[in-house]
Fold:
Amino acid sequence: MKYDYLIVGAGYAGSVFAERLATQLNKKVLIVEKRNHIAGNAYDELDEYGILVHRYGPHIFHTNSKEVFDYLSHFTEWQFYEHKVLAALNGELYPIPINRITVNKLYGKNFQTEEEVKNYFQSVREEKTIILNSEDIIVSQVGRDLFEKFFRHYTKKQWNLEPKELSPSVCGRIPVRFNDDCRYFTDTYQFMPKDGYTKMFEKMLSHKNIEVVLNTDYKKVINDIKFDKMIYTGPIDYFFDYMFGKLPYRSIRFEFRNFNQEYFQSNSVINYVEPDVDFTRVSEYKYFTNQKADSTTVSFEYSQKNGEPYYPVLTEQSKSLFKEYENETKKLRAVSFAGRLATFKYYNMDQIVAYVLKNFNNLI
Structure:
């Protein structure tokens, strides 16, 4: 059989492209996925205790794009969920992102207005003419002490680099608040797929023109497949056989534990910002899904160098290396590169969907 498109990877980028090509253009699509499941890092499943868990860590859907929300609504119903994160420091829990409650509790202040918090940050922040790295962006907003307490050690654990070695975009994704809004996100649409992400992907890929092959490295079968064009969503350095060297990623080891009690902790996610705690955060999945059960499952996250590539390590050196690979892609007419791994860039889930919908429109 001949396919119009071979798509490498069944995560967001590959699956949304496949769905659009099949339903809008009546194209025949083959997806080849190296893992034993679809949905990429958003994959969820019931564990042995019947708790719906996210196997690759918590995935929280949020977006300001009506187009993205409406598109995904074709494949899932939703349940409302606003994400809140706490940071554990010296035996106390503080809201993250840093807000008025964080400052008042940590320093024994009694700020009542946003203006008071702004003035406080203004008094402790460090003036930076040029923002060169992640340390610069934080100390220029909230000063040295809050940086040391909440950002430095957590970032070091997560990336195995000091914040001053990382691109400003890494820590710059985390906002700073002057009010008492404890939500991690402020997007218009904040929901979770009612039946989970995997069920949503199953519906997305249910078209008769889409065929999915799992447990398969595309390089081992590509010579046996007839196709016109390829959309590649895997690691770009692997595509080019690491000809310029490997791009750096951080991976995560998840330690899932079930407790015979209704809840394990007071919040869905608690970040451990102190250097003497090995794990970065603990996530409790029943908070995300609103599932009712007598027991609860949590995951402890340990950041590591080797393993599945999760987060591109953005330094000046790595961005330069990626540029060499990106230049190679321009020589290929029948291959498109899409997604986090293929573009060496961090995307939220909604950003990937928006990216694909935009590029699909350009394609046609």
Observations:
- DSSP finds 14 helices and 17 strands in the chain.
